Amino acid sequence: MKMGYGKLSQTDIKKLIDVAGEENVFTNKEDLVPYGRDNCPYKWSEKFRFIPDVVITPISTSHVSEILKIANELKIPVTQKGGGTGMSGGCVPKYGGILLDMKKMDKILEVNKDNLYVVVQPGITNLRLIKELEKHGLMGPHEPGSSPSSTIGGALSTSGVNYRQGVMGALIDEILGLEVVLADGEVIRAGRNSAITNLSKNSVGYDLCHLFVGDFGSLGVKTAATLKTIPIPEVEEIHVVTFPDFESTLKAILKIQRAMLPGIFTYTAFDREYMEKASQIYGSEVYGGAVLIGFMGDREVVDYTRKKAEKFWEEYGGQDMGPEEADAEWENRFDVYPRMIATGKPAARWHYEDPTVKMTDLAKALKKYHQIVAKYGFDDWGGEAWIYDQTSTLSAIMYAVDETDEDNWDKYMKCANEIVEAAIKMGGSISNCLGYDKRGVGRHGLSLLKKEYSTPELRTIYEIKKALDPNGILNPGILSLDEMEGV
Ligand SMILES: Cc1cc2nc3c(=O)[nH]c(=O)nc-3n(C[C@H](O)[C@H](O)[C@H](O)COP(=O)(O)OP(=O)(O)OC[C@H]3O[C@@H](n4cnc5c(N)ncnc54)[C@H](O)[C@@H]3O)c2cc1C
Q1: Ligand 1 within 6 A of 477 CB?
Q2: Residue 239, ligand 1, Cβ within 6 A
């Protein structure tokens, strides 16, 4: 949707101040510049820094609604920002205009211990929500590696994943309902098959709620979310099990999965290349593969499940590394990035491709990704897989690229594209949680999307966008929606 956008005049800014209050509207250059980027690889793509014309920090749904009414009338682009930890340029205002910084809308509106749900505003960080729910004996719905800074609104808009999805599901499974402000300022409740936002199942129409999950803010502004929660279990037990090779690791996981054992909350698998890098940092032995497997529930359930699982992993040569190793690995589960920095190569920036593939394609996929990274001569940090179920597994490869070498930009673009294309060829998807456009705002255009979606599918996406946002003001540029007209 390439629209002729309007420009904000001083009178328009005054209207916005009247709505949101002077303390929530920023127009000084030094306040605007930091909003020009997110966590995309910007070392090279500095030219993809896009500065908004005004930043607004709304504190209520009615603020958001009134701001959107003004923006829609004047055809001013509006981009939402949570913690800015996204890696697809999602919160970057490609066409300038209004940047809605949602972080002041960070309240917990309701904790329902009986029906096990929580209602929050979108700007709360994932870590704060976890900590607040702990006070009620409940478990937070989402813990990404970025949880101290990322927000629940950003996580819902990117359709995030986290370690505990074996029991809790990915965030898309945990959402019960949303409050969303549409492009024209209308406020709607979007539930699962009706407007009610705290039921997980009913049968009264379209599932509006999930339409907004993973929309990268292109269909509406999320102003509240109702999410499932669960009581903190009596026991949470982590094991690290090593295997002679990655194939045996996956076979053991498949066997355990098929036994339908209760209380397994995580399977995170690592391949030989990952183990080799880890051994360089920690001086540990190199194994062909490993899985971090977690059990939760009461003592009896955990003991039962662990014993059964143990039998299966031993069939494939699995060896439990013991509680100390497991606790350390769990404690440091998000530390792969600092680990890279620990190598003392500050010019190298880590990159993480995260295509989704089926469990049965995982070994083949990671092997292919390693070959591609080797072809381009980048520093391979190994493959890992966040295993959700057989049909949806995050197949990630991490690698470091020397960003002082300008020639690496083109090589990096080709490398990253080849990795995701390899996944698409296997029936996989470009991304599991980080998003489509990891190499800069609108950088790909439609080229990769066309490999995953057919023309009628892209047209359907475009028609939905047009129906909800006819002036194309919401986060224009994201998902290459600005290029879909006439596709
Ligand atoms: C070190 C590191 C570790 C990470 N680990 C994980 C991980 O484990 N799992 C995972 O899923 N991701 C992970 N990520 C990626 C990133 O943290 C997530 O995508 C995160 O959920 C983004 O949240 P945010 O608040 O930072 O969103 P932002 O980056 O601010 O925005 C992301 C998108 O959401 C939109 N948005 C934000 N708020 C709203 C709103 N209220 N309404 C509508 N749209 C909105 C924005 O417009 C943008 O399109 C990681 C990133 C880093 C840097």
Answers
A1: no
A2: no
Q: Is 473 in the pocket of ligand 1 (CB under 6 A)?
A: no
Q: Which of 312, 310, 290 is nearest to 302 (CA)?
A: 310
| Atom 5 (ligand 1) nearest CA | 145
* pTM summary value: 0.96
The CATH architecture to which 235-333 belongs is: 2-Layer Sandwich (3.30)
User: Which one is the CATH code of 338-425: 3.40.50.1100, 3.40.462.10, 3.40.190.120, 2.40.128.50?
Assistant: 3.40.462.10
Q: What is the pLDDT of residues 8-54, one digit of tens each?
A: 999 999 999 999 999 999 999 999 999 988 887 655 556 667 899 99
- Atom 11 of ligand 1, residue of closest alpha carbon: 160
Instruction: Give the mean pLDDT of 208-234.
Output: 97
Given ligand 1 and candidates 157, 168, 180, which is best to mutate, with the most ligand atoms within 8 Å of its CB? 157
- Overall average pLDDT of the 193-218 stretch: 94
Structural class in CATH, domain 10-102+469-483? alpha beta
* Extents of the domains making up the chain: 10-102+469-483, 104-231, 235-333, 338-425
Ligand 1 centroid distance, CA of 153 (Å): 8
Q: Would you say 106 and 132 are in contact if contact means Cβ atoms under 8 Å apart?
A: no
Q: In the predicted model, is pLDDT for residue 246 greater than 60?
A: yes
Q: Is 125 in the pocket of ligand 1 (CB under 6 A)?
A: no
State which ligand 1 atom lies nearest to the alpha carbon of 143: 8
Least confident range of 202-206, 314-318, 458-462: 202-206
Q: Which residues contact 381 (CB under 8 A, 6 or more apart)?
A: 273, 274, 277, 336, 340, 350, 397, 398, 399, 400
Atom number, ligand 1, closest to the C-alpha of residue 432 = 11
* Ligand 1 lined by 217 (C-beta under 6 Å): yes
